[in-house]
Design a protein that fits this description.
Elements lengths: L29 E2 L17 E13 L4 E12 L3 E7 L3 E7 L2 E2 L1 E5 L2 E5 L10 E9 L13 E3 L2 E3 L21 E10 L3 E4 L2 E8 L2 E12 L6 E4 L1 E7 L5 E7 L6 H8 L2 H12 L7 E5 L7 E2 L6 E2 L10 H9 L7 E3 L5 H19 L4 H11 L22 H18 L1 H14 L3 E3 L1 H12 L4 H8 L27 H14 L1
Length: 499
Amino acid sequence: MFRRHGLRAAAAACCATAIFASPALAGGDGPGAPGAGDDYFPGYGNGGYDVSHYDLQLRYQPADDHLQGTATIVAKPTQNLTAFNLDFALTPKSVLVNGKPAQFSQDGTELTVTPSETLPEGSLATFVVSYEGVPSTVEVDGLNPWIRTSDGALAVGQPEISAWWFPGNDHPRDKATYDIAVTVPDGTEVVANGVNTDNSSLAGWTTWKWRTTKPTATYLAFFGAGNYEINEKTGAFGQPSITAYSDNLGELAGPAKASVERTPEVLNFLSGVLGDYPFEAQGGLVSSEGMNFALENQTRPTYSHLFFRDGANTSVVVHENAHQWFGDSVSVDTWRNIWINEGFASFAEWLWSEAQGTGTAQELFDHYYSQHPDDDPFWQVMPGDPGKDAVFDDAVYDRGAMTLQALRNVVGDEVLTDIARTWVSEKRYSTGTVEEFIQLAEQKSGKQLGDFFNTWLFTKGKPPVGEATGVPASAVKVAAAPPKAVAEIDRTHALLHEH
């Protein structure tokens, strides 16, 4: 997510450790837990079941922001389940469990469902929720991540958004595949994740169908409805590349296209560093209003027009597409582990700059290290445990990227590449923790790296120059002119943080 991107919307982090390997907490007969065990966001996600697929049938009217929906959730109970929760903010009209009416009650975003009979552990279960509402008017605990625009809406946000358009198990630990069908008035376009499988029109309404076949976290599922120019071509790896640009971009349409249409090139570069691209499609969407951030929605990153005010910006495209590996395929096990997502996405910008000849990663490290004096509050945020209110702090991005360049200096380029490739390969479509990453880095390097990571990720203060910290003497010398990439990266990050 482009947080720096002052553009990302949202906000939160998470704290539980690797103890919780799945969103469901095993147990005997009884209700599932109303949370997934995330210390930063204890109410997010639920226990007692695992979701494998969401089928979302929606009807959306841009004129009044009215959304009707029927969500069919295919799940497997992980205990003998007498009741369970779904994360949902709109108004449910009915709930069926395995075809039978179920009792339900709602408190904020907690929809508690009591089926007519206990659901056996390991059985196939289906939950069908019919609902409606005006998402832009629904606020829970001061939050409303839904983005209404003059011509439609954007269901885009982090870490919360899904509860404002479909019921689900809203935590990265419980990933699923999706079919998303959105019916809108003729002349309105809809873009979502994956591949556009069908479009059909009837009585003044058009239904757009999208499918993603790889496990997807709830906050990475999205749709955008409005007036868009949609382009489809063959992208990297022979996959469909689908891009969408708001009809209202005006003079920013050119620089936006000059940036996002380079996505296949960016993915080819990133796959050379990180290994095989983990998904079935690619592309992006650029809005013209409502957003001041970018988000790595799976297969289809979404960008604010603001990133392109000063011209083309490939840094944000690199950042959001690096998240397809770090964040989307391998997600945070709890939001406390956000450094793995944002540190690698920001470091990918540095590697891209290095490959483009606009500044090496070390030159960028030196610039950011010298830019922040010892007493700068920047050094008081610990990327490995930033706290709920600082999940998207500058330090998570910049100090996070610096950690990886420092690690590169300590273990060498080949070993760091091996660490990154092994991480995304072994944890594909699952989650990971900072502690697991440290363990892998020690295994691959043959070095004890506890002190190194403790200094960079878990200690307040500026890491000192030295071989043990990976900070070279060059870092304390302020260059007369910063690397060329700095202006674009800073612009991108400023936006992300503006949000």
